[in-house]
């Protein structure tokens, strides 16, 4: 009898705790075994369950966002009575081509006579390209000459246009002859060209926004020709085309930047 009472005393705490956990809701407690020795039996302790909220990380959100976006690929022939997506596509591509042409002419480590051709000169008779009113030639690898003898009255305007071209050029004048020293290829000059490339890219993006806005305005005028769902799909298609064009502009900028910085 004494031995039985002694055994009951040893198991009594664990028995009571286990029984209490069994009769309480599972959601309220969890049982955790506490290692150790106390009279050669394990001890059990009840802990209240605290609900845990898992927050989505930025990476997970970005992944989910990317997965939720679906690309639109409309048949241009089916919506040509609403808007010509081919024309919009051509206008957006022309923005890319204009930037590439600009890079080739104005954003080069070595300045060439052709890089001055595009410079627009504001005269009393209107705006003209520099090569239309002056003869441009390369005197030496370090000097470009612009002969304004054909239009001497435009010499001052030509000098101003060259200085404000963003090409880091400081022209000098001798009568009707404009001397344009070519900047040395220094680190500062390279960084200046990169800055110019970024400015030109931003201007290209401005032109792209105008193309997109014009397309959206045309679409609004055609809302009576199609359902709201169709109009929404066309809007998404145009936005998608614009996003793809921006990515292409950024790609060309990255290539040019790498080229300039070496």
Number of strands: 8
Stretches with pLDDT under 50, minimum 5 residues: 18-56, 58-68
Structural class: alpha+beta
Portion in strands: 15-25%
- The total count of helices amounts to 7
**How do the helices and strands follow one another from N- to C-terminus?**
HEEHHEEHEEHEEHH
What portion of residues is helical?
A: 40-55%
- What global shape is seen? elongated
Distance N to C terminus: 95 Å
Mean pLDDT: 78
Main β sheet profile: 4 strands, antiparallel
Rg estimate, integer Å:
37 Å
Task: Summarize the helices and strands and which ones pair or pack.
Layout lengths: L1 H22 L5 E10 L2 E8 L9 H11 L16 H22 L13 E4 L2 E4 H4 L1 E6 L2 E5 L7 H9 L8 E3 L2 E5 L5 H35 L6 H34 L1
Antiparallel strand pairs: 1-2, 3-4, 5-6, 6-8, 7-8
How would you describe the overall organization of this protein?
The chain has 7 helices and 8 strands; from the N terminus they run H-E-E-H-H-E-E-H-E-E-H-E-E-H-H. It has 262 residues and is α+β, with helices and mostly antiparallel strands. The strands form 3 sheets. Strands 5-6-8-7 form a 4-stranded antiparallel sheet. A two-stranded antiparallel sheet has the order 1-2. A two-stranded antiparallel ribbon has the order 3-4. Helix 3 (85-106) runs antiparallel to helix 6, helix 3 (85-106) packs parallel to helix 7 (228-261) and helix 6 runs antiparallel to helix 7. It starts with a helix and ends with a helix.
